[in-house]
Amino acid sequence: MDTLSARPKGIALTERQKIAWLRLIRSDNVGPSTFRDLINHFGSAETALAMLPELSARGGAPRSIRIATEAEAHRELEAAQRFGARFVGIGEPEYPQALRQIDGAPPLLAVKGDLSAASRPAVGIVGSRNASISGAKFAAMIARDCGRAGYTVVSGLARGIDTAAHRASLATGTIAALAGGLDRPYPPENVGLLEEIWNGNGLAVSEMPFGWEPRARDFPRRNRLISGISLGLVVVEAALRSGSLISARLAGEFGRLVFAVPGSPLDPRCQGTNGLLKDGAMIVTAPEDVVEALAPLSGPDLFSLPVAEEPKHESNTLSHPPGENDRTLIIDALGPTPVEVDDIIRHTGLSASAVYLVLLELDMAGRLHRHAGGLVSISMTD
Questions:
Q1: FRET partner for 81 with CA separation of 20 to 30 A, picked from 115, 190, 241, 345?
Q2: Helix H or strand E encompassing 150
Q3: CB-based contact 260:281 (threshold 8 Å)
């Protein structure tokens, strides 16, 4: 399948840019969406870094925010190099192609292994940690057939279904998304599997710093990576409240195909997957169900989408920050209910640049809440 091997264009970050990007994403109150808005507004990570103290002060921060130092960024780059890993920016050709299209894609990914695994269209396979024998066997069948069809298999290195999917696609290419740093894999019993992945035809990816021990709240971020990298997500055995259903919800938000394998109504491990089928997920009773559904999405058009990078044009920084009246008008338009930024612009009658800048000020002060779909809100205490 030649179309599955097409490579996108991209621009490599310079060492100086990579240091600045790493500093910016590791600074307080800067998440992926905030990072993107800072770059779009100020034109470069270096300029954004210089503006962070002023932004947070204007936004009403009670204290100075922590800004990652150049020395800290150098140390993390050196740690990655010692580990045999590297950082890939969202505008670079090695960055997973589907992931760069989602809202709030990580600007930098730590990666180790065969980068060609990220150049092919991917399918995610997730499911129960305490998988049944039949569930694990079927997940392996899907992974094996998808791999033979030219797809990279993505999963989260967890016990059960994830492990079965990774092992079945070692020969064809698999990506393990980690909740912690690349040097802090979880669970410990899958360290050997992870080494097989990155020493073979696979790749390990993480958006977390080196040395970061995964916490419970980090796993939804890992699930976001799985769903974002994949064109479709297959769920095999999932309880009603499980991380696999979070992955499925995210996949739906990203416009990905969501597949579910039906199971016995008497098995709690299948209640979540059966629920997905009721909600419109595509039923999977054979591996070819997945391969055939993904085929129309896997052509060369996938790789002709625009890439994100530091803009070459002049930034849209305002010559003067908005006045207090304008700032109050924007803050008063916000509330606990998430709203679209375009609605704030229409409601206030202010320029987009002014609105985005005030939102950045509130964001850097820790007062703004970002939601799926680019919506924003502010707590009532503000």
A1: 190
A2: none
A3: yes
Residue-wise pLDDT tens digits, 179-236: 999 999 999 999 999 999 999 999 999 999 999 999 999 999 999 999 999 999 999 9
pLDDT band at 46 (very low <50, low <70, confident <90, very high): very high
Chain centroid offset of residue 226 CA: 8
Among the listed residues 92, 111, 106, the one whose alpha carbon sits nearest the alpha carbon of residue 7:
92
Q: Is the pLDDT higher at 303 or at 34?
A: 34
Q: How many CA atoms lie within 13 A of 34 on its CB side?
A: 27
Q: Are strands 108-113 and 203-206 parallel, antiparallel or unpaired?
A: antiparallel
The residue behind tokens 């998808």 is 146
pLDDT at residue number 302 = 56
Provide the pLDDT confidence category of residue 307 given band limits of 50, 70 and 90.
very low
Please list the residue range(s) of the chain that carry CATH number 3.40.50.450.
Answer: 120-179+218-298
pLDDT for 317: 52
**What are the start and end residues of each CATH 1.10.10.10 domain in the chain?**
324-378
Write the CATH number of the domain with boundaries 120-179+218-298: 3.40.50.450
The span from the first CA to the last CA of the chain, in angstroms, equals: 55
CA distances from 347 to 182, 313, 318, 320, 339 (A): 45, 29, 20, 22, 11
